[in-house]
Amino acid sequence: MIKKILTADKNSEENMQSKMELMDEIIRGRTIRLENELKERKKIEEDLHNSLVELENSKTAALNLLEDLNRETDERMKLEKHLHRAEKMEALGLLAGGVAHDLNNILGALSIYTELLQNKIPEGNPLKAYVNNILSSCKMGEEIIHDLMIFSGSVVQEYSIVNLNKVIYDFFDTPVFQKLRDLNPDITFKKELSPELMNIKGSLVHLEKTVMNLILNAAEAVSGKGEVVITTENRFLETPLQSYVEIMEGEYAVLTVSDTGIGIPVNDINKIFEPFYTKKVMGRKRGTGLGLTIVWGTVKDHNGYIDLCSETGKGSSFTLYFPVTEDKPAENNTKIPVENYLGDGELILVVDDMAEQRDVADRMLKMLGYMVHAVSSGEEAVEYLKTHKPDLILLDMIMEPGIDGLETYRRILEINPKQKAIIVSGFSATDNVKKAQDLGAGSYIKKPYLIEKIGIAIRDELKRT
Ligand SMILES: Nc1ncnc2c1ncn2[C@@H]1O[C@H](COP(=O)(O)OP(=O)(O)O)[C@@H](O)[C@H]1O
Ligand SMILES: [Mg+2]
C-alpha cells in the first residue's frame, strides 16, 4: 500500500513536473506570440503614423499648389486686364486719331483762309467781327482735335528738358489756378515737392495740360471741405511693378495728385481715360471728357506709366511715372521778328496730296516772298527734281495712294543728295519723321501751321549748312 502510494506519489510528482513544463511552454509560447503581436501592432502604429505624416505633407503640398495656382490665375487675370486695357486704349486712339486727322485738315484749311480774309478786311468793317468769330471757333475746334491727336499719339511733340516741380509752381501762378482757388475756398491745395526731383525729357505744353487736368479733376471731385495734395519724388524701381498697368523697372520722376473727394466707382475705373468719357454735366466748362484722355496720351508719349488708387467716398490718387534724364534745361527761346523770315525769291517745291493744303501753302509762301511750285504726289516730286533745283521742299509725310513722304525723300536724295526739306504733317507716324530727319531733312512742322512758324522753319533750314 505504501509502495503504491509512494509510486502514486512519484507518479503524481512526475505528472506535476510535466504539467508545469507544459504550462511553461504554453506561457512562453503565448508570451512570444504576444510579443510578436505587440511588435506587429507597433509596426502598424508606426506605419499608420508614417502614413499620417505623409498625408499631412501631401495636404500641405496640395494646399501650396492650390495657392500657387490661385496666385498664378490672379496674376494672369491681372495681366490680361492690363493687356486688354492697353489694347482698348490703343484701338480708341486709332479711331480718335483717324477722325482727328480728317477734321484737322478741314479745319486747317478753314482757319488759314479765314486768317487770310481777316488780313484783307479793313479795320472798322462790321464783317471783321464775323471773321474773328469764325477764327476763334476754329481755334476751339483745333484745341479739341489737338487733344484727340495727343491721345492717339499722332502729334510729334517738341521735347525739351523739363522739371515737373517748375510745371507745378508755374501752374499755381496761372489765372486758371487762381480762379480754382477762389471758387473752392474750402479746399486746401498742398504742394509736397522733392527739391531733388530729376528732370525729364518732355513736351512742356503737354505736361502743363496734364498737371492742370489732374488738379482740376481732383478739385472737382471734392465737395465741401477737402484736400488736394500734389507730390513729386524720384523713385527707382528695381523690378516691374504690377499696378493699374505694369510699370517697368527704371528710374522715374513721379508726380502724384491725390484728393479727398468722391472717389471713382470700381466699374468706372476702366473707362475714365477714354475720350469723351465724363460724368460731369455736359455744357459746363469742364466736362468734355478729354482731361484724362490728354493725361493718358501724354504719359504714353513720354514712355511713362499711370498708376491709380481710388476708393469711393474716400478719394483718389493719380500717380504718373516719367523716365528721368540727366540733361539740364536749355535757355529760353526768344521770339524772332517778322523781317527775319521773309523769303527772297527762293524756289520752294510743295508736295502734298491734298489740294487745299497745296493751295494754302502756295498762298502763304508767295506772301512771304518765295517762288512756289506744287505737286500732288511723291512720284511727281521725283520727276520734277530731275529737271529743276528747288531751294527747299515742303514735304507732306502721309500721301495716298503713291509713295509716302519718307520714300519720296529717299528717292529725291538719290537725285540730289543735298536737297533741303522740311516735313509737314498733321498726322504723322513719328518714326517716319525721325527717319527722314536722320536722312537729312530739317525740322518738322505740324499742320495746320501759322505763317510765322513755317516762315521761321524755312529760313532756318535755308541757312543751315
Ligand atoms: N480725381 C477724381 N476723382 C473722382 N473722379 C474722377 C477724378 N478724376 C477723374 N474722374 C472721373 O473721370 C471722368 C473723366 O475725367 P476727364 O477725362 O478729366 O473728363 P471731365 O473732367 O471733363 O469729365 C470724370 O468725369 C470723373 O467722373
Ligand atoms: Mg477733367
Notes on the structure:
54% of the residues lie in helices and 17% in strands. The chain is elongated and about 160 Å long. It contains twelve helices and 14 strands. The longest helix is centred in the N-terminal third of the chain and has 119 residues, at 2-120. It has three domains: 87-151; 160-325, Heat Shock Protein 90 (2-Layer Sandwich), CATH 3.30.565.10; 338-463, Rossmann fold (3-Layer(aba) Sandwich), CATH 3.40.50.2300. Helix 1 packs antiparallel against helix 2 and helix 2 (127-151) crosses helix 7. It starts with a helix and ends with a helix. By secondary structure, the chain is an alpha/beta fold. Strands 1, 2, 3, 4, 7, 8 and 9 form a seven-stranded mixed sheet that branches. It has helices at 2-120, 127-151, 164-172, 175-183, 204-221, 266-269, 291-301, 355-368, 378-387, 405-415, 430-439, 451-463; strands at residues 160-162, 187-193, 199-202, 226-237, 241-242, 246-247, 250-259, 305-311, 315-325, 347-351, 371-375, 392-396, 421-425, 444-446. Strand 5 (241-242) and strand 6 (246-247) form a beta hairpin. Residues 213, 216-217, 286, 291 line the site of magnesium ion. The site of adenosine-5'-diphosphate (ADP) has 23 residues, from helix 5 and helix 7.
Total tally of structural domains:
3
Q: Give the oligomeric state of the chains in this entry, treating copies of one chain as homo and distinct chains as hetero.
A: single chain
Largest sheet: 7 strands, mixed
Overall geometry:
elongated
Q: What compounds sit in this structure? A: adenosine-5'-diphosphate, magnesium ion
CATH topology of the largest domain: Heat Shock Protein 90
Give the ordered list of helices and strands.
HHEHHEEHEEEEHHEEEHEHEHEHEH
Helical region count?
12
The overall pLDDT average reads 87
